[in-house]
Amino acid sequence: MVSVRVLIVDDEALARQRVRRLLQNETDVEVVGEAESGHDAVAMIRDLQPDLVCLDVQMPGLDGFGVLSEIEGGHVPMVLFITAYDEHAQRAFDVHAVDYVLKPVDADRFRAAFDKARKQRANAVAAERLGELLETVRRLADGGAAEGRGDGVAALLGGGASAGAAAAAGAPANGATGRYASRILVKQDGRMFFVKTTEIDWIEADRNYVRLHVGKTAHTIRERISHLEETLDPRLFARIHRSTIVNLNRVREMQQWFSGDYVVILEDGTRLRLSRHYRDRVEKQVGV
Q: Fewer Cβ atoms within 10 A, N terminus or C terminus of the chain?
């Protein structure tokens, strides 16, 4: 379970004590400090960088929303608003608060709100870990590409290509790397040609066929995605969904989505879904 570092902010001492007592009932929680004013909260957030701030809305001098404005551009933790008035609820969600709890703080309501924060923290950690993983894989891929430059000998795979066809073309069937395809044979409109695997942005499954997305062009070949996956260098390609393989060198960023899934955004703006199941597989793929 991922631990959560919490800062409690309220100008009332009794309110801070109530929140601290409720947090003691939660596992893997570290209360890193308490602040009794908005200005103190800003300083402590910058210094302690907590994961979550239990933040009172109404405080003299600088209120809860003012605190968020002050820390904009720096470390922005998750926020659980605690307020005596539900009129602040909509504004709380407008600033992407995890939740809000009304005073006097009910134990069950607080527990439900904190559970949201715990899950959001776990997803954020997973996303960060996966981002580091993708960067590691991309570095390995860049290194492998540099080491793999040679005489240009390539594998011929896909579209029914065989070892005999490879030999006829003067290329070994097992490819330049000895294991993975560097080219894929495409049959289209009565002609045959090769697509370099390094030029593929992503691959999409459609029953017994796959579409190779290369820039603005898509080439369809008769092949199951599970078999094609086995022919591709795992340093360059990752299965991110049961129907999707992506070229890791094309990944620009990742964004958290729902239920532990993520959105992978490619350099050209294409958005692809990364499911929890394949996130775990990618981690195992590189031994993390």
A: N
